Amino acid sequence: MLKQLVQGRSAISGHVRSLYKRHIKEHTCPTLGELLEALHLEIRTYSKVFIVVDALDECPEDNGTRAGLVTELRSLPGTVNLMVTSRDLTSIARVFLGAKRLDIRANTQDLRRYIQGRISREPRLAGHVKGDPTLQDYIVKKVLENVRGM
Q: What is the pTM of this model?
């Protein structure tokens, strides 16, 4: 995020420039704390910032990574507009309790058409499935079972 904010500017801020020079000189990498501080400072130079976090559910939960990410995102200045996408998981819904929410579910018929189209365009599958409609039906059925409206 910091990189994207910095690249959007015509000039690099003094804080980011000195952070970069110090770590280049010392052959080190900035700490998470230093990067977060720089991110906060850069965000404050914009009137509005939009951050999209796609598939938060894929961020590991067991080692605290997801919780840490959410904590940091929530600590960003008020000029940040945050949008998060995720599967419907209780642990994530609980974290965003009270936030605006839009539930989107895939339509089974649309998914069926999409899967059938992908099978017909996939050279590894098309030859095998073309002559065996039962196999295609089986593949479609199994994929739809595993998707469960995702």
A: 0.73
The confidence band for 58, taking pLDDT boundaries of 50, 70 and 90, is very high
Domain range list for the chain: 1-46, 47-104, 108-147
pLDDT in tens, 69-96: 999 999 999 899 999 999 889 999 999 9
Cα separation, 38 vs 36, whole angstroms: 5
Q: How far apart are CA 44 and CA 97, in angstroms?
A: 26
Tell me which DSSP letter residue 50 carries.
Answer: E
Residues in the chain: 150
CA atoms within a 13 Å half-sphere pointing along the CA-CB vector of 150: 11
Within 13 A of 139's CA, how many CA atoms are on the CB side? Answer: 18
Tokens of 150: 């995702």
Q: According to DSSP H, which parts of 10-107 are helical?
A: 14-26, 32-43, 65-74, 90-95
Cite the beta strand spans of 64-108 per DSSP E.
Answer: 80-84
